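User: I'm putting together notes for a lab meeting next week and I want to include a structural view of one of the chains we've been expressing. I don't have a solved structure, so I'd like a prediction I can at least talk through. The sequence is below, exactly as it appears in our construct file.
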Amino acid sequence: MSNSLTTSKSKAALEEQSYDLIQQHIIDPENSPLPEHLRVQCNRVLQIARLLDDYPNESHIINIMLAKYRISRTQVRKDIALAKELFKTQHQFDWDFWFAWMIKDQIQLIRDCKLRGDLKNWNNAKKVLHQMIGERPASVEDPRRMEKNVFYIQINSMGQKVDVPLNAIRNLSQEEQKVLVDSMYTPIDDVQAEEIMNS
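Assistant: Thanks for the context. Below is the predicted structure for the 199-residue chain, given as structure tokens.
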């Protein structure tokens, strides 16, 4: 199973490789875990990422890469886009992208350790993930949350509007509440009902 996983990972594009594989390639290119075709592309993308710090104008980078490598202009543009996405430069560093990528890799490591039954590394990976995410930020208490809210029920009686607090109605007995509801209800005849329906 691990062999098929490695094969599928090797066929994946450079941007689909894990952070650890690319890091190992950068640290030790002689013993790179990346497939040969991705090593060449990774080296180009790394070089472009460094060039982006010195040459913010992409036309200079395209000319440099075309002179150095036998690749098309379209491939250079794809490499530039990939360099901007994977290796953020001094001019534009997307911290959220890197953070999400590292968390995704850490979660994958936790899954792999659990499937292998490697409880020691599984617990260590969970601790690292907890350190990466950090503690939950303290929520700001709404100062008005504990204030007492008064709700009113509006009663229309003989053309007058009266606001009655809900607590006052709750404190009435059941008979008094029934009298109040009955006084609010006035029956209508068929002609009035038809007028309401037609309006």
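A couple of points you could mention at the meeting. The chain has three domains: 8-93, 94-134, 152-186. Residues 152-186 form one domain.

User: Perfect, that's what I needed.
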